[in-house]
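Reference record:
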Amino acid sequence: MSYAVRRAHILKKTSVLKFVGVNLVYQTQAVLSNISFEVSPGDHWAVLGQNGAGKTSLFHIASARLRPSSGLAFVLGEQLGRTDMRQLRKSIGISSTSVAEQLPWHLLVKEVVLTGLYGDLAPWWHAYDKTDRTRAVDLLELAGVGRLSERIFGTLSAGERQQVMIARALMPNPQLLLLDEPTSGLDMGAREHFLERLGALLLEHKGLALLMITHHIEDVPVSTTHALVLKAGEMLASGDAVGVLTDEILSAAFDYPLKVENYSGRYRAVARLSK
């Protein structure tokens, strides 16, 4: 057995998500350069960076929608480029505004959650049994929006849609939950309510690994164990959240002098004013 095959076999056994020297090139432009990190079961990762830093491209690889131009990317033990990525996506919990916008807005909320079981955008391509329908309603209750199960999806507020999308993402009982800017467009109250419900959901799914993309450190959940900071497609820092979410690293990432404050796991960043 070659070294490369042995190495891939080891990585498959130990990671929910692992990037090793991942590069992504669009035409001639490098979008991601030499990205390496590992997400283990139960880890909660936050990925931060400016617009254009490469966060969305990283998300697309992690969700098995893109494969890297070079390097190794493993998702749920499968190497991208050597597995059926369409089948793999059915085992990943994904919540993003782009997915929400593609769902038919005339669907009932409980039907939206059902579509998460197979990762489809409509419920009429599969048969769902009573157990599936009961699980969908139970997940809505757990997400704090059980009262909305019979509502039309398109009539919900932005905050309510985000909570429904989390319930949808959990429908296949995934090992990996991917959130792409889940608090985008929410006011402060809606954001805090969302983060509170997300925390409750994560407590109910203790082995679940989380990767959350965000622009704002204030959106980082209190359960976050690790962080990765990108700048211009390169990895500025990654590792334990406390060691990564610092004044120095975030100031460099966002090209502005910032002071990071940590209140029992909830972060905020403010301008560091010169005296």
